[in-house]
Each structure stands twice: as structure tokens, then as C-alpha cells.
Amino acid sequence: MSYQPHLPIIVQSDRSVLLEVQNPRFSEARQFLAGFAELDKSPEYIHTYRITPISLWNAAASGLQAEQILEQLARLSKFGVPPTIVKEIRDLMSRYGLVRLEKEGDNLLLVSDDPTLLAELMSYKSLVRYIDRQVSPRAYQLTLAARGFIKQELIKLGYPVQDLAGYSPGESCPVRLRSATRDGSPFALRDYQRDAVESFYAGGSVYGGSGVLVLPCGAGKTIIGIGAISQLQTATLILTTNATSVRQWISELLDKTELTPDDIGEYTGDKKAVKPITVATYQVLTYRNKESEEYAHMNLFTERDWGLIIYDEVHLLPAPVFRLTAGIQAKRRLGLTATLVREDRNETDVFSLVGPKKFELPWRTLEDAGWIAEAHCKEIRISMAPLLREKYALATSQQKYRIAAENPCKMEVLKKLLERHEQDRVLIIGQYVDQLQAVADELSAPLITGKVKEAERAELYRQFKSGEIPRLVVSKVANFAIDLPDANVAIQISGTFGSRQEEAQRLGRVLRPKKQVNQAHFYTLVTRDSREQEFAMHRQLFLVEQGYHYEVIDEETITS
Q1: Could you give the CA distance from residue 309 to residue 235 in angstroms, rounded to a whole number?
Q2: C-alpha to C-alpha distance for 262 and 438, rounded to whole angstroms
Q3: Are 315 and 339 in contact (CB under 8 A)?
């Protein structure tokens, strides 16, 4: 194909795709690439995406065809698509569904239409222990307990399994959605929430029942989970990040359904009630007195005949819960998250054990529809005092990051921002407790860290929601599942190195739709020419992929 300079992308033979930010077709190309590629770098003018096996398999599982991707790539590419990439995309996407799990009576079968491939795979030592017998050239009977483990092993070999073995119905649990909440407000699932539930349920067929739904913070993932419970009418175990989130789930269940408090159990460090609908934390499941001991509460997975297990913030699923999930593949499994990014790179375990991505809604799509606030993201670069710069120069790499993150010059900029947003509800979010304590003392503002008891946290959140306190200083405990709908400004003074998921979650704290002006402001204070500036660029990758733009400004813009 001849060179077409007006087109926005360049596809390279190393599976990278370069996208011109200032091209008129940037938005169209960005949305297209997000469906099957991962954003790798996002400087001002050229964004780099990378096509990976897991990104292509998620695309295949969501219904995208290789030819659709290749046709669009060719249509948007300046130089066409290298033949090696055409071959790799076809090859990798064809592998999804090439090997399938099916049920025949009570037997679990691994089947393929390619008997030669199946025989080759079944010869691997890592798989032999799961085989009961060969049924035919195209089918092997497996031990029932092998369902999760064999999926993990096969994806390591490059063959993601399509699981069509179905699910046990679980214990019946009638759940009826209210038409109005307890305060009398009309209630119904939004169109996209119903679409998300249906994409998971798939009409009750074997093509549904496991998978991950990816929606922005503020889009109502809890409501979607409740919609799935109502669809299935079955006993459900909900796993989430902390006790505050547990109580928010319980509150929403009581507000949006006709369930009573007797139907819903809280399973946390404070309470251990197992009911038809039970909400537990990941922490309590992974608790043990000593490393050598068994996990004391993992039996919660078998306490009742659960028909559905919901993994809230599935990108944070701890390794021990992954291991147990491998053994309960006959249960329906629903993952909810704002981002499939895992900083430990274990996305393949989510794919294999919880399920592939079944539904995704771009953040900017919801923003344009008014379902989440319009976000304005700014990175403010701040200088370092000469003496601190000397200390920084002599420090180790890890020390450099913390020195830059705790730069005292951030305080003046923070105060100026608070003057600018005097009438707003402001969250000040950071990583380091000493820094947060200093900020809280300077501003005479309340501070929430992991040491603050749940009851005290709940009261501070209540006061913030009611407007009694307009500013709240919070550590990373507020990254997840905190419902503060009136917060419209977040100021991030430090973060966890280059964590993309944390950046997304922190922006999500202020994205709930606003009753008046539906706008939110997200500021990140970054020390100029430092390790923190390098990490800030990586932190922003996921949100840039979602269509957000960070305006980089100097501190003088704020302080002058």
C-alpha cells in the first residue's frame, strides 16, 4: 500500500502501533485501538499501543473478528499493515475457542475440532495429571476438579480455553428489584446497565455466566451486580475490598431490592454472618495467624450452595483467592472493575478463572451522556528547593521518588488550589502518612488512614457528604469503593509509583454525576525533573487511553 500521510496510525512489525495525537481522526482511532490493544506510552504527540495475546483474546471473547480488526487497521494506517502482523493477529485470535470445555452428562470434556492439536497439548506433563481418559480423537475426559487448573495451564501454552461446561444453579434466592428506592426516588437500571447484565447472562446459555464487566467509576457497577443477582435469583457471595465497601453493598441491596436485613450477611473482621446474600472482604478471606497455617475463612466459598460469586474490583483479586477460584469453576463468576490493568501483570489469571471481558463502556461515552461528571485533569509541576535538590541528587532511586513525592513546596500550591475551590468538596489524596498528617495539621482538616476505625471513617464520610466538612485528607484506603457523590475536586499529592489502576480509581472518586454543574477537577502535584515526573506519565496511561487529556502546567500558574 502506498504512503498515506493523512491517516493517524503506523502499525509496526513488533506489534506496536503508533497513533498521532494531533491527527483529526485521533479519537476514532483511539477508541478502535482500545478494543484490542494496550496503551504503552502517551507523550504529547505520539501514543504507542501494543498488541498482546491477552488483548486479542479479550477482543475475540467480546465478539470481535480478526478480519474486522485487520480491515480497520488497513483503513487507518499510513503504511498498511505488515504481513507478519496480519498473520499473528489471525493466528492468535483463531486460538480462542480452538480448545473448549464442555459437559456430557456428569463428565467434563476438553474438546477440539483439531485432533492433532489436542493430542499434542494432552502430551504435556503439566496437563497429563488432569486427564481421566481419551474419549475420542477430539475429546478427553478430565477430572471434575481440573476445570480451572487446566485453563490456567493451557493459556500459558498459548491456547485460551472457551469454557462452555455450564454452571450449577445454586441455592434459590428470590430477589426483586424495587421500582422506587426507600426515599421514594424512581429506580430502574439504565440502558447500559441492562446491556452489561445481559452480556454476562447471555440468556442463561453456556456462553454466559462468567466474565468481567469494565465500566468507569461512578457508572453504577454495584447496581449492575444487583441486576445480575436479580436476573439469576440465586444465593450470591460478593467479595469486595474493605469493610466500608461491604456496608455500601448492603446499603444498596436494601435500597434497590426487596431483600430484608435477615437476607443479607456481613462477613468482615467485625461480623461473621452467612446469609443467602453474603458480602465479604478479600482481607478476611486471606487472613491467617501464621504463614504456615491454612486460611481460616476460605471455607466461606462452600458455606452455602452459591449460584453466583461477584468479585468487586476484580483487578485487585489476591493470589490466594485466585487459587480457590480455580477450584469452583462450576459457580457463575462475575468480575466488576473500572480497569483490567493489574500491576502484577496477572491478567491471564483473571481471563482464565473469572472469565474474559464481556462488556466495556468507555469513560468518555458515559461522560458525554451525562452519567458521570466531565473531568478536567491537570498535572502541576513544582520546583524543588536547592537544599532538597542536593539531597535528591545523592539519594538512591527509590529514595528519590519519596523525596520528590513529599516535596514541601507542594503545600503552597495545595493552599492556592483550595482557595480556588473554596466552595467545592475537596479530597486531598496521598501515599505517605507523614505527609498526609502534615497536610491535615496545616489545614485543620480531618485525616483518614488505615489506622482510623471503620466507625470513625463512616462518620467522617457522612459529614463530608452532608457538607459539614468541605475537605477530607485521605490515604490509599479511599482509592476503592468509597461513595462520595458530592466530591468534585481531587488533589493528588503523592501516589504509588506508576500505578495506572490507582490513578483511575482516584479520578473515579470525583466522577459521580453532580446535581448542579456536572464537572470534576483532578489535580496531580508532581515535582519537576524528578523520578516522580517519570512515574506520573506512566500512571496516566490508562486514563489517556480512555480519552482524557492531562493539561501540564507550572506552579506559577497557580501561585502567581
Answers
A1: 9
A2: 44
A3: yes
What H or E segment, with its residue span, contains residue 255? Answer: helix 243-256
What is the number of alpha carbons within 13 Å of residue 376 lying toward its C-beta? 9
Question: Residue 38 and residue 40: Cα distance in Å, rounded?
Answer: 6
- Distance between CA atoms of residues 511 and 375, nearest Å: 7
Question: Cα angle at 50 between 47 and 53, to 5 degrees?
Answer: 160
Tell me the pLDDT of the chain averaged across its residues. 90
pLDDT band at 348 (very low <50, low <70, confident <90, very high): confident
| Amino acid (1-letter code) at residue 60 | A
Contacts of residue 398, Cβ cutoff 8 Å, sequence gap at least 6: none
> Residue 524 is which amino acid?
T
Shared fold status for 191-361 and 371-559: yes
* Among the four given CATH numbers 3.60.10.10, 3.40.190.10, 3.40.50.300, 3.30.750.80, the one describing domain 191-361: 3.40.50.300
Q: What is the C-alpha separation between 460 and 452, in angstroms, rounded?
A: 10
Tell me the one-letter amino acid at 366: L
Using alpha carbons, list the distances in angstroms from residue 257 to 29, 82, 180, 315, 492: 41, 53, 9, 27, 36
pLDDT of residue 513: 79
Alpha-carbon distance of 114 to 162, in angstroms, equals: 15
201 within 8 A of 195, measured Cβ to Cβ: no
Cβ-count burial 427-454 (b if 16+ within 10 Å, e if not): bbbbbbeebbebbbeebebbbbbeebee
Give me 247's grid cell. 456496608
Higher pLDDT, 471 or 322: 471
**Euclidean distance between CA atoms 390 and 400, whole angstroms:** 11
Q: If you count DSSP H runs as helices and E runs as strands, how many of each does the chain have, helices first?
A: 23, 23
Q: What is the pLDDT of residue 357?
A: 92
The grid coordinates of residue 66 equal: 480478526
3-state secondary structure of 89: helix
Tell me how far CA of residue 221 lies from CA of 31, 33, 189, 331, 337, in angstroms: 22, 24, 11, 20, 8
Coil, helix or strand for 300? helix
Give percent of the chain with pLDDT exceeding 70: 97
pLDDT, position 292? 65
Work out the pLDDT band at 383, boundaries 50, 70, 90. very high
Domain ranges across the chain:
9-95, 99-164, 191-361, 371-559
pLDDT of residue 558: 86
Contact between 217 and 507 under an 8 Å Cβ cutoff? The reply is: yes
Place of cell 499510513: 78
Model confidence band, residue 345 (pLDDT cutoffs 50, 70, 90): low
- pTM to 2 decimals? 0.85
Question: Residue 69 has which C-alpha cell?
Answer: 480488526
CATH number of 371-559: 3.40.50.300
